[in-house]
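Could you please consider the sequence and fold following this short note?
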Amino acid sequence: MTLLGFALLGYVLGSLPFAVLVSKAFGLADPRSFGSGNPGATNVLRSGNKAAALLTLLGDAAKGWLAMALAGLLGAAPLGVAFAGIAAFFGHIFPLFLGFRGGKGVATALGVLAGFSGWLALICLGTWLGVAFVFRYSSLAALAAAAVAPLAAWPLLGGDMAAVISLMSLMLFWRHRANIRKLLAGTESRIGKKQVAQ
């Protein structure tokens, strides 16, 4: 397969909308209809169903990792594996199956980071958990982890891969621009606050 082929593989896997699929399986409202309107694990958690949120988180993370694992099994060079992972991340943000209106990509980014390096994923997950525990803001935790990712990637993976991960981090900041405004205004929703469909 070519680089384009690996990228297409990653993109299709990344486009799988686990938030919508899991919510439907649990008989919950479409996560795009309440809260932030974001088809991701944090918004599914606002439904009050922790099991559905956990399954969404695992599915979204797994598709990022799986895209890279499959690319490797199909004989991709490191660049092809990286392409597959980044494409999965962009597939989650701009999914084929949801009219290119997807989630913010945090869980999928974690799966991609795990595909690059287990240690890198653990560092970023630890950052997310620490910030989320102290401040109770999922968005702030995601931004902190996104900032840490390329810095931690540099000594672990080298400059080239750190640059690729920087692109993903910049996209995460862009996707959270509304959350940044809310954080600055003091109106951002905290983790665990239930919001139901109207």
In short: The CA atoms of residues 66 and 146 lie 21 Å apart. The radius of gyration is 16 Å. The chain has one domain: 3-185. The mean pLDDT is 94.
